[in-house]
């Protein structure tokens, strides 16, 4: 680009002609046009309109090619190569050795003008890749007072006649005050939109929980669990006549003797068991689950009648040490197994049994396959690539190791389908996010990924003889072109397969359409959703991270509100919390987002209609969600999420008040300086009365100087006395030696 500083009329005229010349040359960059015709077009335009500038025109109009300024692809009068679609041209138009008449500075007697843009040749015509405003009003700067009025008139006239510029550009448009006004207006529009979204969320919450208040309260209460060890007396094990402790593994029960009677206790009623030694005896203490115990949670163990009488503990003492040690071990192991089984049962509650996959078999309708793909999470056995197949109502991944080693995914269970190309990545992948989790081995998962590595690891550069003998730029260029070609082929193959999945799913009328979603890398921002700092990329419907496990898929439609934490001056990072419309679901935290991305994150949240708030501190979301789930209707009746905005506003006001309240005045500042000096000047021998007096009276500098001089004099006298004492001691030592 060329920038003009206090340009005279002749410079502005030459620049306007050069700008018009460049626009006409861009239009000539079309399929089949020889390069010499492009240069000839420029020369003919100059001869027709400004013949005085022909001798100042540059010798070529740019170049094309992988290397910078390749001699075979220079745009000059001798090159007859033709343009083809896909070629990228560096179009450079300029005038050199121009003379400026009546120049005040000899250095400004000659000048040059140049405009360079990158142009892509396509089937439909040229496409400027570096498009931004190049008009005279955007590149001219005036610093002389005498030219300001004329410049303003010229700039206004050019602005009225100039076409509107595209707003989606990364190049700064201006540095004038009007830019700040545009930013303020955009921020105001965003605030208005956020208020509308907040009101909409409030109305939706009121409508959602108004009619279901009683039902939700009853549904929110945990069910009372009743454990039944034995239904009949005949089911009791043998050997209870001796009034001994018996462990029944089959019924998960411990039978304890109480006043000569065998009383069964299910292991779920026993909180813990402790063992201690007392001389030659061993004590076993059974602690039972009762209401009101320290550390117990009533929502986990509800009781039919909390006011009833409960047995809190039973203590048994026996001289048979070996038996009690074995009982303690058996009961502890059995309780661990029971807890493990309960945890597995709770984890498998949301597992939904899928229907049967209808295979497409026969010669008339062959199966659509994607070979040599890996799956994550991995299947059991050796890690080898398998085959992904499309059938009538779903997908099947088949491992080559075993026919029974496969994964079936029905279209009805697919919530999102993502295609992530291998651009700037090591793999190309298809990611499936499910409505309901499925079992992969012994674990359940909602995210299944099929990928293929983009790099060719089987090729060994050091073992290739040809590269040993002939190693140069041509080999590197050939390798780069081969890798670029391979990546394009992988992207095309996976994208076509994803489109076939979408078409096959939409053809089945019983299933909703499965749309292919592609992450927008340009809108991505870094954050820590789990433990590593990764690039989070928005898509049309989600915010995802798919490159490595653990994966992150946040559906935008499921978000109730987003809260930005630690947003305050001086911090380099902030956090973001997503609260979902299903309040029983845990909020998702994304930590350590760079503060430079704050405006981009706000703009993205506002563009996808997600209401957001911000605050200077981290909140206890466990307690907040517990309060909301206790009574959602009352939560929205009391204002809903408005407490987040009110809290942030109150904290800002408090910070400003505290800052003004503790702002140091001139007298305080001088007092603090005097305190610091006094701490540096006065030693521990200084009297506390003098320090207190100086603090209360607020002494001036002269008085402090007098005190400092007096202190130095006292310190000097003490030093002289110490030297005298040292001299006397040394003399005394000399006498002793003699």
TrEMBL record:
List the SMART domains: Rtt106 (SM01287), SPT16 (SM01286)
**Where, per UniProt, does this protein localize?**
Nucleus; Chromosome
GO biological process per UniProt: DNA repair; DNA replication; transcription elongation by RNA polymerase II
Residue span(s) of domain FACT complex subunit SPT16 middle: 245-397
Point to the regions of Acidic residues compositional bias: 649-665, 685-703
Q: Which GO terms describe its cellular component?
A: FACT complex
Q: Tell me if DNA damage is a UniProt keyword of this record.
A: yes
Indicate yes or no for the key word NAD.
Answer: no
UniProt main location, coarse = nucleus
> What is the purpose of this protein?
Component of the FACT complex, a general chromatin factor that acts to reorganize nucleosomes. The FACT complex is involved in multiple processes that require DNA as a template such as mRNA elongation, DNA replication and DNA repair. During transcription elongation the FACT complex acts as a histone chaperone that both destabilizes and restores nucleosomal structure.
What is the name listed in the Swiss-Prot or TrEMBL entry for this protein? FACT complex subunit
Name its species.
Syncephalis pseudoplumigaleata
């Amino acid at each position: 680009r060329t920038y003009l500083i206090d340009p005279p009329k002749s410079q502005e005229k030459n620049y306007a002609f050069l700008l018009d010349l460049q626009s006409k040359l861009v239009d000539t960059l079309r399929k089949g046009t020889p390069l010499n015709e492009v240069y000839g077009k420029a020369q003919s335009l100059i001869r027709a309109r400004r013949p005085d500038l022909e001798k100042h025109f540059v010798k070529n109009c740019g170049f094309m090619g992988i290397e910078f300024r390749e001699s075979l692809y220079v745009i000059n009068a001798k090159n007859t190569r033709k343009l083809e679609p896909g070629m990228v041209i560096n179009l450079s138009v300029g005038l050199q050795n121009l003379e400026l008449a009546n120049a005040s500075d000899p250095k400004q007697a000659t000048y040059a003008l140049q405009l360079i843009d990158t142009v892509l040749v396509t089937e439909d015509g040229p496409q400027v890749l570096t498009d931004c405003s190049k008009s005279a009003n955007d590149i001219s700067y005036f610093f002389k007072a005498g030219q300001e009025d004329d410049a303003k008139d010229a700039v206004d006239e050019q602005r009225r006649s100039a076409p509107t510029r595209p707003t989606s550009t990364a190049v700064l448009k201006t540095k004038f005050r009007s830019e700040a006004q545009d930013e303020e207006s955009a921020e105001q529009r965003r605030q208005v939109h956020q208020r509308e979204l907040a009101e909409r969320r409030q109305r939706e919450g009121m409508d959602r929980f108004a009619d279901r208040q009683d039902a939700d309260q009853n549904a929110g209460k945990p069910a009372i669990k009743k454990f039944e060890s034995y239904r009949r007396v005949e089911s009791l094990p043998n050997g209870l006549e001796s009034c001994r402790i018996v462990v029944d593994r089959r019924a998960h029960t411990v039978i304890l003797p109480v006043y000569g009677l065998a009383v069964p206790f299910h292991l779920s009623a026993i909180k813990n068991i402790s063992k201690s030694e007392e001389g030659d005896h061993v004590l076993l203490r059974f602690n039972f689950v009762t209401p009101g115990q320290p550390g117990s949670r009533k929502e986990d163990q509800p009781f039919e009648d909390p006011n009833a009488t409960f047995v809190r503990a039973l203590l048994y003492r026996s001289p048979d040490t070996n038996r009690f040690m074995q009982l303690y071990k058996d009961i502890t192991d059995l309780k661990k197994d029971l807890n493990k089984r309960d945890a597995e049962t709770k984890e498998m509650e949301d597992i939904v049994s899928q229907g049967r996959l209808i295979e497409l078999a026969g010669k008339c309708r062959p199966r659509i396959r994607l070979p040599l793909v890996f799956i994550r999470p991995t299947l059991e056995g050796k890690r080898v690539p398998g085959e992904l197949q499309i059938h009538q109502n779903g997908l099947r991944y088949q491992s080559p190791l075993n026919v029974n080693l496969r994964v079936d995914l029905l279209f009805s269970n697919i919530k999102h389908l993502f295609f992530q190309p291998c651009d700037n990545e090591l793999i190309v992948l298809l990611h499936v996010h499910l409505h309901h989790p499925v079992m992969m081995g012994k674990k359940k998962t909602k995210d299944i990924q099929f990928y293929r590595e983009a790099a060719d690891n089987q090729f060994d550069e050091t073992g290739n003889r040809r590269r040993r003998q002939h190693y140069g730029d041509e080999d590197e260029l050939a390798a780069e072109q081969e890798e670029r070609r391979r990546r394009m082929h992988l992207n095309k193959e996976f994208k076509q397969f994803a489109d076939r999945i979408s078409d096959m799913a939409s053809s089945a009328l019983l299933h909703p359409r499965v749309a292919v979603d592609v992450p927008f890398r340009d809108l991505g921002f870094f954050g820590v959703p789990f433990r590593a700092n990764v690039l989070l990329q928005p898509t049309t419907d989600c915010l995802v991270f798919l490159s490595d496990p653990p994966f992150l898929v946040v559906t935008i439609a499921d978000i109730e509100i987003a809260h930005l934490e630690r947003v305050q001056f001086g911090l380099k990072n902030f956090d973001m919390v997503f609260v979902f419309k299903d309040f029983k679901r845990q909020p998702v935290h994304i930590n350590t987002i760079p503060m430079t991305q704050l405006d981009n994150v706000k703009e993205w949240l506002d563009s996808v209609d997600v209401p957001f708030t911000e605050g200077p501190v981290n909140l206890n979301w466990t307690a907040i969600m517990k309060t909301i789930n206790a009574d959602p209707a009352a939560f929205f009746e009391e204002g809903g999420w408005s407490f987040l905005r009110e809290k942030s506003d109150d904290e800002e006001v408090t910070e400003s008040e505290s800052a003004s309240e503790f702002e140091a005045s001139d007298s305080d500042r001088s007092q603090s300086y005097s305190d610091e000096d006094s701490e540096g000047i006065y030693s521990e021998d200084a009297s506390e009365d003098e320090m207190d007096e100086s603090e209360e009276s607020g002494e001036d500098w002269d008085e402090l100087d007098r005190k400092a001089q007096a202190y130095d004099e006292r310190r000097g006298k003490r030093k002289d006395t110490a030297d005298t004492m040292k001299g006397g001691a040394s003399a005394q030592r000399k006498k002793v030696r003699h």
